[in-house]
Structures
1.
Amino acid sequence: MEVLLKDLRYIVTQDEDRRVLRGKDILIKEGFIEEIGNIKGPVDEVVDCSEYVAIPGLINTHTHVPMVLFRGVADDIDLFPWLQEKIWPMESKLTPYHIKAGTRLGLLEAVRTGTTTLFDMYFFEGVIAEEFVNFGVRGVLGQAIIDFGTPECSSGEECLKLADNFVSTWINKNSLVEPSYGPHAPYTVSPERLAEIAGKSSELGVYIQIHLAETRKEVEDLRGKYGRGPIELAHSSGILGDKTVAAHVVWPSYDEMMLLSRSRTLVSHNPVSNLKLASGISPVPDLISLNVIVTLGTDGAASNNTLDMIETMKITAILHKAIKGDPTVVPAQSVLDMATIIPGEFLRWKIGRIVPGYEADIVLLKTRVPWWTPLHSVVSHIVYSARSTDVHYVFIAGKPIIEKGLLSSEREEEIICEAEKASLDLLERSGVSSLLKNMN
Ligand SMILES: [Zn+2]
């Protein structure tokens, strides 16, 4: 199967020289980018792209996809009541039925907003993995491990067994899905269990996803209990490394930033979630200057409340300028790299660039709209002016997932209805109130 994206207004290649090409075509063949240039000759399908800017599919390095079911039920409250009165009661009632409906809704939102690869960490990850494959979206998926249990298991030991099963079931099973271990955080998983997980992950060569230093309270509690901060604790348990994703990293010490840098651990910066929960602001310019690998995530939709990476890019770019009092820090090109090339290289996958030989994970943004006009600077428009509703086509491994802005109107309606039903059912079971429920 060949698809020709013809006469693109611009192609943001994200190649070594960060070239932006004008009026060129992209030939997709058997899921890969075959050629870029002025291409002639018969092909199976041609898409007229004269209104579109092509960018590599965005990579969201931290989320909990099914949590879209909790969107809007727990806003404007403190972290602990947020967890204890809303999130945990609902999560305790989750079943594969809710997970499936939530994953579908979350993936629909992710692709509609230009994301083609997500790092997910949750419960019932096997159900989530099936939906990633059905949708045709790439995922690095982590089965969650918590010492006091999850909706699926009653102890850390049991959770770890489930994670072992998940990893062995999905390893090398499908090219879209990479299984991983998801120890929740050093305050919910003991150092001994973290060490056990680190051993398993290095033996099998699989990724680890963990929350680190999200709140000041977590740092203070761990220092009181173990005499070490969360990142030091993860390091001494053998968790840090070039196959580990550390989400948040809002409160690292200087020494901890150096540990992240030396170990080549990937940091997922989640500014919207951190701002909304008032967790603080990650020292991203300092992390970058110490050569830490920094990428972007949305976190779950209970604390964001979207999975919109275009919005996340803009907030990242403007937030750190204000904090540092310096408009030159975290420029647009660096932010786009954090959402494309950097996580692609960390994964050692051929994603995050539009160059021949790479996977055809491509997003086309519609630009004949006021907020893209005049188009003086393509990369800064992507970060500062674009809206996620500009996403008109999304290809993953060469397959068109979104066409003319939609999955297909019937399938979208079905996914939305199912998700509404599943969310109301969950509220019912857990006794959590919502505006929607009160109106019914
Ligand atoms: Zn998270």
2.
Amino acid sequence: MWHIAADSGVLDTNSSYAYLMWCRDFTATSVVAEIGRTVAGFVIGYRRPEAPDTLFVWQVAVDHPYRGLGLGVTMLDRLWDGLARQGVSKLETTISPDNKASIAMFSALARRRDCLLTDWPLFDRPDFPDSHEPERLYRITPKPTEE
Ligand SMILES: CC(C)(COP(=O)(O)OP(=O)(O)OC[C@H]1O[C@@H](n2cnc3c(N)ncnc32)[C@H](O)[C@@H]1OP(=O)(O)O)[C@@H](O)C(=O)NCCC(=O)NCCS
């Protein structure tokens, strides 16, 4: 996971220790995709402590050779399927405005699950102490039921 994040050229690479701790403590809300014996992609997330019906996706990445095969959206879809049985009905993530692949993938996930996708600013440049890109909050929620 650490190698894939570092090689992505896009993600903030957390420390290798952080990924190990994530695998220890957040397995229920994370997934790794293996092709043969190779880790091809991963999703790490958590249920928001103050909104346990919401899965926050911290990072999702697919290693370069395996991109464009539907792996990213499939990992998210399957992770959500498993958590839906425990009451998770909403998904959130943040995306930098220039990350077209990520926006396309979460849009595809919302379509696949027949949900609404909304987004608005969350963190702007001055919120970060370094030269981080802005992050917009994307939410995928069930469509309101018609009376
Ligand atoms: C974002 C990422 C995980 C997508 O993984 P992937 O397995 O290649 O994506 P999928 O094959 O599941 O594609 C899902 C949808 O996104 C679209 N998509 C994927 N990559 C795209 C790109 N570079 N440009 C435009 N659309 C793209 C696909 O066409 C598909 O849409 P469709 O169902 O309408 O055809 C991968 O590009 C990646 O690891 N990027 C670097 C890390 C990153 O940016 N992570 C997200 C922020 S946390």
3.
Amino acid sequence: MMKTGTPLEHLQKAIQCETVSYGDRSRINFKEFDKFIAFLKESYPLLHKKATLEMVEKYALVYKLKGTSNLDPIALMGHYDVVPVKVEGWKVPPFGAEIHDGYIYGRGTLDMKGHVIAVCEAVEACLSEGIGFERDVYLLFGHNEETGSEMIDSGARLTRNLLKQRGIHFNLVLDEGGAYINGKAMGVDSTIALIGVGEKGYLDVELSATQSGGHASTPPHTSALYDVAQAAMKMESHKFSADFNPATEAMFKALIPYMKQPMKFLFKNRQLFKPILLLALVKSPETAATVRTTSVMTMASGSSAPNVLAQVAKININCRIIPGDSIEKTVRRIETRVGPKIKVTPKNGNQPTEICRSDIPQFEIVSKALTSVYPELRVVAPYLMVAATDSRVYHGMADAVYRVPPFSSMKDDRSTIHADNERLSIESYHKGIEFFKKVLIEATKTK
Ligand SMILES: [Zn+2]
């Protein structure tokens, strides 16, 4: 068969397509998206020969490989849009896909063309080796994840609607996310791989205060900006209360066997030691976010001139809602806290997802695939993702929706996501392909 390039060359070509997402559609250069689709067609001939391809909203790609059984299919999801770059901070051209010291650099290497291309490589390899699938395999690649699955034109949402209409229910859905963390904080003596089994909710709330305005030389007792700032400060100085939730419960259960004393004892008796454990967990922003609804000020506005009083002053509060909590409850609690002088307007949001089970074969298949490509990894545990992914739309139409970290080099380079000098280790990339291959083989078996 004609060779179309190595897996690494394919990833380079993928990164070189400048598929940058903007909320304002008129700023999107769709030619680059066309280029990416043409690249896929030319690089993965077997996939394009054996699978059907549908385009939703013109650019969201839905590949379907027919399996030999009629059992529920699996889906490997991803998105091929990327966030914009600020060129100044980059040591290399952001879309150059240059290779230095064992790393490939470029916007999208981690978030998430590396993942998408690894999936394509794995599928193509299976097909070329004659490996058949018993379950149908869907590859669902969105084109506008970075602007949010709440958008009307969200490729993921529209794709989900289409598949739902067809009555499809998935056995397993895999998307981006997950993490590698140092186990020390949890009393575990190795790196821990985390698989996201649910996501927090999202909510923007606008706080506003009004005043009749007037001249800044004769100010009222308190200005609108003062009132709204005071209300917003009440939100930040008194955090929402912390508690365990089904996702943290599942994580603790998975980690306890690997914990050393005294952590093992504390977590085994976590109801008894809850106050101490929660106090420890809220100390770091990362773990705090997994046990409480968070809120933080993100935008503020007052008057339009330095010597003019604001008639309306606004502050946006961005909240991430813990499972078990809800948009409605969060809004009510904000209203109570800020008091009647402040208008509370919920802007956009989505509820926290349900938490998928991790005591089912799907979880074992995915975690075994990870530990087999990364033998140094001893522990894989479920956890709550605090960021949002497109996969949230599949909760309710799948037995398992997991966010997986195919590349262990992410542990050190996580901070380059959405930032300068995003990079992926080439070794991890190749292991990621192996990971998806194993998942494809094992997860499509019907026994
Ligand atoms: Zn992403």
